[in-house]
Amino acid sequence: MIIPALDVLENNIVRLYQGKYETAQFYPFNLAERLLEYQNAGAAKLHLVDLEGARDPSKKQWRTIQAATKALSVPFQVGGGIRSIDDVKQWLDAGAAQVVIGSMAVDKKQEVAAWIKACGADKFVIALDVNKTESGWSPATHGWLNDAKSDLFELLDFYVEQGVSDFLCTDISKDGTMTGPSFSLYEDITKHNSAIKVQASGGVSSLDDIARLAKQQVGGVILGKSLLEGVFSVEEALACYQNV
């Protein structure tokens, strides 16, 4: 599945480089219109990130994102600043098909497990964003500002046990760089558990990248900067993915 993504900061569409807020590149697109363009181009699912909320949960861009998604008929997943079950329910009530849980999924596993039990595992995408270290893949939290002590595969196993099958994994060194995805990360994940539907995110810069990810049988390919920069269209990405 091809999943177009839009990140929102200061109520505008933006892309960061390797998750660093000081690198923010703003785009002159209307959020609601851009989402509809992606939907009308054939995307079957969309991805939204509240970067303001991820950095400071007290500054969630709730109203902006809610208003922009009202006209959508395809499902969307949303993350950033989700810190409580009330936040989860707020997004689900607003029409989100799934909520994306990042930092909380690493730091407060038991609390998130309780949310999953209460709302249903199919309502959750667990986002595990990682740095490559000598010992393996190390998750980072809180807008990628802090390193976690947990191992990636331990976290994957924990949430699979809770019934979750949708995961979004980003190699932070690749995010926003358009230097190619972290193929080794997704290979390691699928080798660890082939039942996991991992959404590949970060670094996609060509249709060849999409084809290679499709061959790795990832559950989805998140496309952000490549679409904003017009490297290829949603239609071209969909055709490439489906023809592998």
Query: Under the CATH scheme, which class?
Result: Alpha Beta
CATH domain topology: TIM Barrel
Helix content: 25-40%
Give the number of helices: 11
Instruction: Report Rg.
Output: 16 Å
Strand content: 25-35%
Number of domains: 1
Mean pLDDT: 90
The tally of strands reads 12
- The ordered H/E elements are EEEHEHHEHEHHEEEHEHEHEHH
CATH architecture classification: Alpha-Beta Barrel
CATH homologous superfamily designation: Aldolase class I
Shape: globular
State the secondary-structure class: alpha/beta
* Largest sheet: spatial strand order: 1-4-5-6-7-10-11-12
Largest sheet data: 8 strands, parallel, barrel
Unreliable stretches covering 5 or more consecutive residues: none
The span between the termini is 12 Å
Q: How would you describe what is shown here?
A:
The protein has 244 residues and is an alpha/beta fold. It is built from eleven helices and twelve strands. The chain has a single domain (2-242), classed as TIM Barrel, CATH 3.20.20. The chain has an eight-stranded parallel beta barrel, surrounded by seven helices. Helix 1 (31-40) runs parallel beside helix 3 (62-69) and helix 9 packs parallel to helix 11 (234-242). The radius of gyration is 16 Å and the shape is globular. It starts with a strand and ends with a helix. Keywords: Amino-acid biosynthesis, Cytoplasm, Histidine biosynthesis, Isomerase. One of its GO terms (cellular component) is cytoplasm.
